[in-house]
Amino acid sequence: MGVKEWLWTASGEGFCLFHAADTRGRVELETMLGTEFAGVLSSDDFSVYNGGTITAQQKCLAHLRRHFKKVLGLPGNNNA
């Protein structure tokens, strides 16, 4: 019916938390993890995950691969 919803997940040893939300913004991330998250955030490359107080991140390898392919296509001889 044209309404977007997002399903956020957080998991660790022995648990999995689901959070349904209307947005994919930083406020939802902080609702799930708090403002001082001490774990490792594994995520895609969406900008909401950058610039916060998260100390360790693991980016999606498919997204990183896509970025590397773009670099290889840039003009110049030293990209490889």
Fold and architecture overview:
- The protein is α+β, with helices and mostly antiparallel strands.
- The chain has one domain (6-72).
- It contains two helices and four strands, in the order E-E-H-E-E-H.
- It has helices at 26-33, 61-72, and strands at residues 6-12, 15-21, 40-43, 56-59.
- A two-stranded antiparallel ribbon has the order 1-2. A two-stranded parallel ribbon has the order 3-4.
- Strand 1 and strand 2 form a beta hairpin.
- 1% of the residues are buried.
- The model has no long low-confidence stretch (mean pLDDT 86).
Task: Tell me the layout of helices and strands.
Layout: E1 6-12, E2 15-21, H1 26-33, E3 40-43, E4 56-59, H2 61-72
Parallel strand pairs: 3-4
Antiparallel strand pairs: 1-2
Strand content: 25-35%
Helix content: 25-40%
- The residue ranges in which pLDDT falls below 50 over 5 or more consecutive positions are none
The overall average pLDDT, rounded, is 86
Question: What integer value in Å does the Rg equal?
Answer: 16 Å
Distance between the termini: 46 Å
Helix and strand composition category: alpha+beta
Our count of domains comes out at 1
Globally, the shape reads extended
Query: Number of helical runs?
Result: 2
Largest sheet: 2 strands, antiparallel
Biggest sheet, strands in spatial order? 1-2
Total beta-strand segments: 4
Oligomer: single chain
Can you write the helix and strand succession as a string? Answer: EEHEEH
